[in-house]
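REQUEST FORM: STRUCTURE PREDICTION
Request ID: SP-0412
Submitted by: Lab K.M.
Chain count: 1
Length (residues): 857
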Amino acid sequence: MASLPLHGGNRREISQLTGIPQEDLLDFSANINPLGFPPWLRPLLAMQMDELCHYPDPLADELTAALALTNGTQAEQVLVTNGASEALHLLPALAGKRRLLLPVPCYLGYARAAGQAGLPIETLPLTAENGFSLAPQALEERIRPDQLVMIGQPNNPTGRLVDSGALRRIAQHHPETLFVIDESFIDFAGPQFSLRRQRPENIVIVQSLTKTWGIPGLRLGYVLAAPRIIAALCSAQPTWSVNGLAQAVGLRALADDDFLERSRQFVGRQRSRLEERLKTFPQLTPLSGEANFLLVRVGGGRNAGTRLVEQLGRKGVMLRDCSNFTGLDGGYVRIAVRGEEEQQRLFAALETVLGGKRLRREKRTPAIMFQGTSSNVGKSVLTAALCRILREDGVDVAPFKAQNMSLNSFVTAGGGEIGRAQAVQAQACRLEPDVRMNPVLLKPCSDTGSQVIVRGRVVGNMDFRTYATEREKIFARVRECYDSLARENRVMVLEGAGSPAEINLKERDIVNMNMARHAAAQVLLVGDIDRGGVFAALLGTLELLSPEERARVAGLVVNRFRGDAGLLQDGLEKTAAYCGKPFFGVVPHLPGLGLPEEDSVDFKAGLLPTTAAPADKLDIAVIDLPHISNFTDLDALRIEPDVHVRKVVSAVDLGCPDLLVLPGSKNVIEDLKYLRRSGLAAAVQALAAGGRTEVVGICGGYQMLGTEIADPHAVESFAGKHRGLELLPLTTVLQTDKLTTRCRAVHLLSGEAVQGYEIHHGSSVNSGAQPLFRREDGSAAGHCAAGREWLWGTYLHGVFDADPFRRLLLDRLRQRRGWTAQGRILARYDIEAALDELAAQVRAALDMAAVYRLLGL
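STATUS: Completed
RESULT:
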């Protein structure tokens, strides 16, 4: 292989020499902010695009004025430049000096600019023995009136700072000498080291915004100097040197001190980690510095550094060979500070090349994550599908969703409560549901508050602000759950929530990109074409992601497409070309699979019809409560061929169904108030009295059928107590402790077995109702009104799932109508077949070879 280029950041040339695609190269050779550019840059550039048809301000007057204000000087002492390089190349020719003094090693551009201006160069060698520090006394001894002195503050490639107070005093003592202080990396060290303020007339400050703001492709810098120097530079500078986009970015950057501070803190932490880890290699001796890079001596001879650069380059890791820096040789390399994941990859590559004892490092379980352009785009179903596909292929896989906001929940074998969707995903993996799969479950109980469940147990009710203060502690527990579960499986399939691009939430979000970062997960971004605007939604989401977040998105998925996918090809190609992300597939609309829905969004949005039942089908109605929960209890009824399940939103639409279900509720008292306000309470009572309709309450609905519900501890509301529908002689008190348990029971009237799970705070006392279900321990799990078996309720979620009991109930409804009982099971409620069908459809739609490559399988 030909020798690699010496200058840092040349990914194209490295790619050509190594055969490694540019996007797969890990660049430690260029000293750019490891956080990338700030989140506001991409939308700012988009807004400025219309200005490209106009010439930019030739003198950048607005940005010049803003820089003068920021630096406490006058506009006449500021010049905006096309990066620091433009200023550094103009200054030697305009300084009016006869020679250049350079402390070396230093940035190569200084000598190059002096050579173009015909200035002789004198060097002041900095030695490894004193850590390449520039001693003020040594500098002052070499200064002459006819000199131009160029100093990096901090120095590139050493990262060392010079005492700024000493530099200021030296300049004052030598007013005829011109000092150019290159502060291109000063923001990573701190403003206290800068000479921008209280600057003597013979000091010129050159600043690059390229490094700090992560915009090397945009080019922006500025000069602070005496008015006569600025005027000379301005006269030599080409017209329109600084483009309009760069000027707009500069103005916005001056208002973002927070990004500077975050960058400084991040670089400081990562630099310390990089230095300490490099020290563990006997061949490497890093030099401490204050910039976003480290100079490293490589043991093994004068060309050991060059050899290391070549060896790592073949592995796709780019370092800066320092052999062309005056005062250094091929035994030195420069290594940029990067994020933790990148630095871990560097260390792994170094271990391979340098050998020696490797530090024990926990291997990350391969992970892939579905995130969406919004809620309800199908992330849960795709997660379940991929889990089943991997399981079918013999891969040990587990699902994970850090935080789920859902009123559809499930109880694990250990009595912990998790989202219903994660229970389905666990089944797709052929695993027992585990609280670690959904460590945080939020169950909304009001417009502003939710019950918070962590690792399956209730920790309390919190409003948004309270939860925000606890989020970091909760996220620590989330990470523990993930790490524990990941260690037990070969692959993890994660699900996000809502959108990763909510600009007011995403920095504190624990379920999307921050979780993907912890898991080192590759992200597939999902858009729902059925709701329209899928390409705009995908592109808009990507536009709002930070550079690091955007880089984590491996590709895109279109979900719920109806028709010929070939008709989408033009849109797919244009979208991929616009954002640089490939499509991993177009998944068809898959209605009627029979899988439980994740949350009430689908229920509210029209999962169930509101239309009347056909004449040849049983009419089953469910009341749409404001705080409806676990409506998946109806799923088994929906698969029956002789049944029509509909949603009721008003008393007018109730009619006279064969079966009326009062479902679960997360705020029973408030939902009771709703029933009375809407007239539905009176309508339900009338149906119960008529005997034509079977009236059933499940969990919260069961409590509503009673005479009274009390909430003395404000578990769900502050309403205290409220009168029930008075259809069953039961009184319920909501307790602070929640019962969550799996349950087996027997229907006493038929002897049929049922099973499911219980999730409730309520403790109900029977005052004359007839037991209808009996648990294995002998206690009653439900009651009916004495002598009126058509009026009953139970705490058991999933009571309709048992095929024999469900058919017995439906046949009883048929006979009440005067129809013939079927006498046999017509439909079996088993989501295994649905999961298999889902997996087959998604396997055919996704590029599974690409998915396996992402996972490294």
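NOTES: The two ends are 29 Å apart (CA to CA).
Reviewed by: T.R.
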